[in-house]
Design a protein that fits this description.
rod-shaped; 44% helix; 5-stranded antiparallel sheet; alpha+beta; OB fold (Dihydrolipoamide Acetyltransferase, E2P); 2 domains
Length: 158
């Protein structure tokens, strides 16, 4: 009976660790107004100001996972491992099934995100002669010929 309690605790800890593999939420970002960037442009140009020459839609692959696949896989793996094992080997089979199921569930969830999300890619001719390519999720109603400033890999009208 004592071994079964230890095995149950170990499986619970393994599942909790796998659920902890979920990605952390994105950090808060502060989006300043366009007026702020227009005022900053006189200090930051010409190295970060330019004109949009080309705009196109691209698909960006998103490899993030929620952790739900790992948790579900761990539970299913633990159930199968528990059903397969006998005696003292049942504990080892349960733990091994939980770990393997967690990895498999996470891989399956990650591979389901292969198509990517639509994003916008801008090619900007900077004032100092260099080119910048910026990819961002929203278009911001920016078009070729618009004067922009590049800040933190985002474009703002200038």
């Amino acid at each position: 009976m004592h071994i079964q309690s230890i095995a149950t605790a170990f499986v619970g800890i393994a599942i909790a660790m796998l659920v902890g593999c979920a990605p952390t939420p994105p950090r808060a970002t502060y989006d300043y107004s366009e007026t702020y960037y227009q005022q900053r442009a006189m200090y930051d140009c010409p190295s970060r100001c330019g004109v949009i020459r080309d705009v196109g839609q691209v698909y960006v692959r998103d490899n993030s996972t929620t952790g739900n696949g790992a948790a579900l896989g761990a539970v299913i793996g633990a159930v199968f491992g528990n059903a397969i094992g006998r005696g003292n080997g049942r504990t080892a089979a349960t733990v091994a099934g939980a770990v393997a199921g967690g990895f498999a569930g996470n891989a399956i969830e990650s591979s389901s995100n292969q198509d990517g999300r639509p994003a916008w890619q801008f090619h900007v001719k900077l004032d100092d002669g260099r080119w910048a390519t910026v990819t961002q999720w929203n278009n911001g109603n920016l078009r070729p010929g618009d004067r922009v400033i590049v800040h933190n890999n985002r474009l703002y009208r200038y």
